[in-house]
């Protein structure tokens, strides 16, 4: 098994590709290698003309994706490093957005920071009752670093999106559903797999070529004013990433995670 296959695993069942970020011991943190493995997986999926939909989730029941891998990213200090990181992550999210069939993020746990951006790049989000989603980047004195603000602003509008980014809080699924970030939440005793099966049913009932045509319309809508937003987001991330306040906050975060009471983390 290759490194990419270890970091991201996938299988197809009944015309649906199930993709799993496979770093449960790291709360499915998004390292550069993990992002590359996801991009490869979705690029391959785009060539499968028999697919009806893709479901993206994380291993375990704790985290969908706990954001970027801060231990790895701690060495990236320059503006050029920040821009390269943004472009690398954005390429993965672009591969998800460009997938020619609907993509559903199944939030089996917390989607935080870059993990929230990853979830937003999908067409839909469904969640387990214990899941959470949070654009918490401002707690590290940075802005979105994976290109997810474009999706957030498109979905919520400018005023609500700004408030979400500034609040930098993890939202429980019902709160996020009321805001419009999550489409459906499991009932108290409903397994996430059952909700996913119900949610994908309308897609598996249609021919793949019809779904591709529908997704083509969605992507055409998404491209309106997209590049201007992407450029602004990239510049804002680089500027906040190299600011001293970010590194002070990041150091505090990493020191908390190194404390024995919290155990190993990213």
Question: Could you characterize the architecture of this molecule?
Answer:
This is Ethylmalonyl-CoA decarboxylase. Helix content is 50%, strand content 15%. With 266 residues, the chain is of the alpha/beta class. The protein has a single domain, classed as 2-enoyl-CoA Hydratase, Chain A, domain 1. The strands form 2 sheets. A 6-stranded mixed β-sheet has the order 1-2-3-5-7-10, sandwiched between helices. A 4-stranded mixed β-sheet has the order 4-6-8-9. α6 (149-156) crosses α7. The relative contact order is 0.14.
Q: What's the tally of helices?
A: 12
For the record, the CATH class is Alpha Beta
Sheet of most strands: 6 strands, mixed
The coarse silhouette is globular
DSSP helix fraction:
40-55%
Proportion of residues in β-strands: 15-25%
Distance between the termini: 24 Å
CATH architecture: Alpha-Beta Complex
- List segments where confidence is low: pLDDT < 50 over at least 5 consecutive residues: 261-266
* Total domain units: 1
Total count of strands: 10
CATH superfamily: 2-enoyl-CoA Hydratase, Chain A, domain 1
One letter per element, helices H and strands E, the order comes to HEEHEEHHEEHEEHHEHEHHHH
**CATH fold call:** 2-enoyl-CoA Hydratase, Chain A, domain 1
The average pLDDT value, as a whole number, equals 93
Sheet with the most strands: spatial strand order: 1-2-3-5-7-10
Secondary-structure content class: alpha/beta
Radius of gyration of CA atoms, rounded to a whole number: 18 Å
